Amino acid sequence: MKERRPLQAQITVKREDCPVENAITGSGSMYSIKRVNAGEKTSKHLVEFEKYENGTANRLRKESGKVTKISENRLWVDCRSCSSCRLISKSESIIFSAKPLSVHHISYRLLMPSEKSLDELVETLIDANMDVTVTKKQDYKVPEQLTKRQMEIILSAYNRGYFDVNRKITLTRLSEEFGIRPSSLEDILRRGLKKVVEYYISAEF
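Structure (tokenized):
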């Protein structure tokens, strides 16, 4: 049995149902998607154009969803999630980043609770008729001063929806599950998240 320990992984997935890619492809526009904030129902895309055309935003609104122009050549597009973003967001993973590599290929950098959970995610994507390649994986390097307790609480809070915009669990309810006072849980979260953010900003993977 594989030991259950956090794992960093980078996977490349081929899917053909990205609304943003499909709306722009064939238009002749030279572009690249710089970042994707993947979600179960909707995902946000930062799109940069070599030469922005006025009709592009209207075409994206019609084909995909909400579009906001944030600079002369960049659009923020909020639309329904593609199949891979939807399935990965429903899994146990934490998505560090998602970046398209080509029209149909996207690379995800993930934090998984265990190697078994990574295997299960890959199997789920393959069962959904997607091509999947694990390009890199390694044990998650927990920041030196992040305790096991902090890690446990942060992962639980994330998976239970505490950090969602529409919070799915309250601090009080979460503290009850851990058997500690809300103020104690809040302190553990604040101290732990500070370390995680510092590590994430400086980490290279």
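Residues 6 and 113 are 4 Å apart (CA to CA). The radius of gyration is 19 Å.
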